[in-house]
Specification:
340 residues; alpha/beta; Spore Coat Polysaccharide Biosynthesis Protein SpsA, Chain A; nine-stranded mixed sheet; 9 strands; 16% strand
C-alpha cells in the first residue's frame, strides 16, 4: 500500500512539473525589454509607458534601478502592470552593468534594450519581432531606423538606407541600444556590455558581435532617441582609447584609421546637430578628416545629399505644444510624417 502511495505521489509530482513547464512555455514573454535607469525619475515613466502601450502585448519589461538617490523607486511603485519587474542595485554600477543585470533576470529568448530617456514607437516590438522571426531570421540581432530628438528639434536617422548600414552604425551615428534587439544566447556568447565603459559601450559591444555575426536592419522608424548628453561627451576620448587598446587596433592600418575617423565623425555630427556646439563639432570633424580625408569627403558628401533629399526634414523644429510633451510620441510621429 505504501508503494502505491509513493508511486501515486511521484505521478502527481511529475504531472505538476510537466504542467508547470507547459505553463512557463505558454506564458513565456516573446521579448524582454531591459531599461537601465539612474536619477531620471522624471523621465523613466515615459519610457516604461512606451513599452506598456506596444501593439505586441506579450513581453516583460525589466527596469534596473542603478541605486538612484532620487524618487525613482517611488515613481516605479505607481506602475501596477504585472509585466513590469523592478531590480535595484545596492550601489551605483553604471549603465553597462545595469543592462547586464537586466539580461540575467530576463525570461525571454529575445532581448530588447531601452534607455530611460528614450521611447519605443507603438509598433516597435511587433515589427522588429516579425522582422527577426519571419523576414530575416538569419540575423541574431537587428536595429531599426530612429528619430533623434533634442530640445531644439528632431531629425530622422535611417541606417537601413545606407549602402553599408553596418558601417553607418559604427562610424556615423553609433549603435543605438534602444533600437537593438538580439537573441539572448548570442548576446551571452558575445558577452555583455563592458562595465568599464559608460560611453561608446554600444559600439564596443557591436564590434565584438560583428566578429562572428551580421546584423539586420528594419527599414521602419520605430524608436525615439532623446538626444545626446553633453555632460558625458568628455569621456569620449578615454573610451575611444580603451576600445582601440582592447581590440588591438593598429592606427597604421588604413581600415582602422577609417574606423577611428568614423568615430570622430559621429561625435562631430552629434555636437553640430544635437548639441549645437560648433567648436566641439569642428574639432571632431577636423580630426576625422586628418585621419581619413578621402573617406570623410565621401561621407560628408553623402550626408549633405541625404540632408537635402530627406523626406522628413533633418531639423524640424518643434513648435506645437502637444509635441513638447515628452510622452506624446503620436504627435511627434505626425509631425515627421510616419505612422503608428
Amino acid at each position: 500500500m505504501r508503494v502505491r502511495t509513493h508511486v501515486l505521489d511521484l505521478s502527481l509530482v511529475a504531472a505538476n512539473s510537466i504542467g508547470q513547464i507547459i505553463r512557463q512555455v505558454i506564458m513565456r514573454p516573446r521579448v524582454s525589454v531591459i531599461i537601465p535607469t539612474y536619477n531620471r525619475a522624471a523621465k523613466v515613466l515615459c519610457a516604461i509607458q512606451s513599452v506598456l502601450h506596444q501593439s505586441e502585448p506579450n513581453f516583460e519589461v525589466i527596469v534596473v534601478d542603478d541605486a538612484s538617490p532620487d524618487k525613482t523607486q517611488e515613481i516605479l511603485s505607481t506602475v501596477k502592470d504585472p509585466r513590469l519587474k523592478v531590480i535595484r542595485h545596492d550601489r551605483n554600477q553604471h549603465v553597462s552593468a545595469a543592462r547586464n543585470t537586466g539580461v540575467a533576470a530576463a525570461q525571454s529568448d529575445k532581448i530588447a534594450f531601452l534607455d530611460d530617456d528614450d521611447q519605443f514607437l507603438p509598433r516597435k516590438l511587433e515589427r522588429q519581432l516579425h522582422f527577426m522571426e519571419h523576414v530575416a531570421p538569419q540575423y541574431p540581432a537587428s536595429t531599426t531606423d530612429y528619430i533623434i530628438r533634442s530640445e531644439k528639434g528632431c531629425s530622422a536617422f535611417r541606417p537601413s538606407q545606407f549602402v553599408n548600414p553596418t558601417n553607418a552604425l559604427i562610424c556615423d551615428m553609433g549603435v543605438l541600444p534602444s533600437a537593438l534587439m538580439v537573441d539572448r544566447k548570442v548576446y551571452e556568447k558575445t558577452g555583455g556590455y563592458d562595465a568599464k565603459l559608460n560611453i561608446l559601450e554600444d559600439c564596443e559591444w557591436f564590434l565584438r558581435y560583428l566578429k562572428h555575426h551580421r546584423a539586420g536592419f528594419v527599414p521602419e522608424m520605430l524608436t525615439l532617441y532623446n538626444g545626446f548628453h553633453p555632460q558625458t561627451r568628455d569621456d569620449g576620448t578615454h573610451a575611444r582609447q580603451y576600445i582601440l587598446e582592447k581590440h588591438g587596433v593598429d592606427l597604421n592600418a588604413t581600415s582602422n584609421r577609417r574606423f577611428v575617423a568614423g568615430v570622430h565623425w559621429a561625435a562631430a555630427r552629434s555636437e553640430l546637430l544635437i548639441n549645437r556646439n560648433l567648436s566641439k563639432g569642428l574639432k571632431e570633424a577636423t580630426e576625422a578628416f586628418r585621419l581619413a580625408p578621402l573617406t570623410m569627403v565621401r561621407r560628408a558628401s553623402s550626408f549633405l545629399i541625404r540632408r537635402a533629399t530627406e523626406r522628413a526634414p533633418l531639423t524640424t523644429f518643434i513648435q506645437r505644444p502637444d509635441v513638447k510633451n515628452h510622452c506624446d510620441v503620436r504627435a511627434l510621429m505626425e509631425l515627421i510624417g510616419t505612422s503608428a
